[in-house]
């Protein structure tokens, strides 16, 4: 396992499985329209010793938005209950391979990053900062949202980068050079500040993972993402629903 690489191989995990400082989390989660229960599937089969991390349970209880990050204190309490210590190596996986696991990888300091993302977006619309906003979701406003009552569209100025483009056919996360090329082809300057977002803050973490692999470690995830943005007034939170990607 490379020191700065956020991804390990199945062989690495097999060789280190059962070591006292290696903790494994099953963070499987599925879109509402898939009608799959990750907890039931975990009980049927999971990696030996893996604990279930409930993305819809370890959340901010003060908001109606789906699976928002809890406070730093609440998250620390949940992690402690799972028996995870600061010095542990935490390996996270999910039922799809690369889908919801990056959401758990992000919270090492994601509570602070999420707040930073919200403030960064506000600064952009106040004309205070140049920032690149990457959105990975139903960008064109044509495909329906999976959540009832939520319109499809995107935040103005966003660049569309579909998260499957981060993987090869296995799927494995692309190499640093391949990822860097993907972002450059999308017209993204890696020298600028970047915020990533999606429908509700889950798959955006996949892009944050890809950016981390190429050395950009300061990318916040807009936690409320489109679900929060779309619910605000159009005059205060502008929206685009015409095809743009």
UniProtKB/TrEMBL annotation:
Pfam families recorded: Rhodanese (PF00581)
Keyword Transferase applies: yes
SMART domains from the UniProt entry: RHOD (SM00450)
Keyword terms: Repeat, Transferase
One MF term in the entry's GO annotations: thiosulfate-cyanide sulfurtransferase activity
Keyword Transferase among record annotations: yes
Record domain Rhodanese: where: 18-105, 144-238
Gene Ontology, cellular component aspect: mitochondrion
Protein name: Sulfurtransferase
Organism: Miscanthus lutarioriparius
């Amino acid at each position: 396992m490379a020191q700065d690489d956020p991804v390990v191989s199945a062989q690495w995990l097999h060789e280190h499985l059962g070591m006292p400082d290696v903790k494994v989390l099953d963070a499987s989660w599925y879109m509402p329209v898939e009608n799959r229960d990750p907890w039931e599937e975990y009980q049927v089969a999971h990696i030996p010793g893996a604990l279930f991390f409930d993305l819809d349970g370890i959340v901010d209880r003060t908001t109606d938005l789906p699976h928002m990050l809890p406070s730093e204190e609440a998250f620390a309490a949940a992690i402690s209950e799972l028996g995870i210590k600061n010095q542990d190596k935490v390996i996270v996986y999910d039922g799809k391979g690369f889908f919801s696991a990056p959401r758990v990888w992000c919270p090492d300091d994601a509570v602070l990053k999420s707040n930073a993302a919200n403030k960064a977006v506000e600064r952009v619309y106040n004309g205070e900062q140049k920032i690149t906003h990457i959105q990975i979701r139903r960008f064109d406003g044509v495909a329906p949202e999976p959540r009832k009552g939520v319109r499809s569209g995107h935040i103005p100025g966003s660049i569309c980068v579909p998260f499957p483009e981060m993987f090869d056919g296995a799927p494995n996360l692309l190499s640093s050079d391949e990822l860097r090329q993907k972002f450059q082809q999308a017209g993204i300057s890696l020298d600028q500040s970047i915020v990533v977002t999606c429908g509700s803050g889950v798959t955006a973490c996949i892009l944050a993972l890809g950016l981390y692999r190429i050395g950009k470690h300061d990318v916040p995830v807009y936690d409320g993402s489109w679900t929060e943005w779309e619910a605000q007034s159009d005059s205060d939170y502008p929206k685009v629903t015409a095809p743009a990607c």
